[in-house]
């Protein structure tokens, strides 16, 4: 990774945790700083994540490990099929030691009525994957259309809520990958945590205006020179 890519990976990992009200501690932040400066390689970062997680079962140790593993995710690709298997591949990289039976959300007494039935997660994920494939994974869309469709899928995936833990973090990594491959990057640093939570909750109630506005404030072209000089801000990679 280049120095800029390292810095971007650390910034994304930090923001991804903060949006879930999680804050890495000094050991993880120091390791990330060393990684950005080139004093620590990816393998050492992975070892540090295992060490932090193994030394204690505390919440802070687990958050530190999550932070470092999110940095590593940015340089370790997986099969990008836009389906439940891709979501699970991302989730496994965040929580590699989680037992298989605890990965997917399971039916529980008094389940949240606003979420998709846990017993039908596979069917729901398959339907979303098929819809995405039919839309060519949102490739070659003009910006307003892309924002609208990405908000739709963020809402659908939030409603699906496939994972009991780290669900939001997993979805944001997936949506970032999907957007980048479609020609757009998401600047999560522009998302206020309170506004982000409110937008997701409003979308689950059928009101997606706030979620669309949130995404519109984050979307930027992967290749800004091409977009601005040839097509204009509201036109996408196809032009």
TrEMBL record:
Amino-acid biosynthesis as UniProt keyword: no
Annotated keywords: ATP-binding, Nucleotide-binding, Nucleotidyltransferase, Transferase
The species this protein was found in: Bifidobacterium choladohabitans
Name of the featured protein: protein adenylyltransferase
InterPro entries the UniProt entry points to: Fido (IPR003812), Fido-like_dom_sf (IPR036597)
Pfam family, one: Fic
Enzymatic reactions: L-tyrosyl-[protein] + ATP = O-(5'-adenylyl)-L-tyrosyl-[protein] + diphosphate; L-threonyl-[protein] + ATP = 3-O-(5'-adenylyl)-L-threonyl-[protein] + diphosphate
The organism's place on the tree of life at top rank: Bacteria
Residue ranges of every copy of the Fido domain listed in the record: 82-220
EC annotation from Swiss-Prot or TrEMBL: 2.7.7.108
